[in-house]
Amino acid sequence: MHDNPPRTSTPDALPEVITRYLKAHRDHDTATAITAFTREATVIDDGNTYEGTGAIREWLDRSATEFTYTIHLTGAQQTDATRYIATHHLEGNFPGGSIDLRYQFTLRDGLIERLVIEP
Q: What does CATH list as the number for 16-118?
């Protein structure tokens, strides 16, 4: 259990590594996005787990081409010293057409160690 409640933050107060990843992901720039992760990082998205930068690179490449969508950062929160949540609104040609997703980041040594994306 955390002693401190989550702190709402402005999106521009997110750590640089998170904003670098989010911008690169939005721009479909896999080469830059992958630099934000540790070598052993884990991403969980849509019920699938991707472990290591090779699997994460494949996931990023696939997600960049599978659907066309816009993504807007709508909120940010720091839950403890190494964990952040960035809430996004997506609209596009995926099933349902619109969704709000929480990107839950865990950092280690200035890089993303874990990313969980869920509604």
A: 3.10.450.50
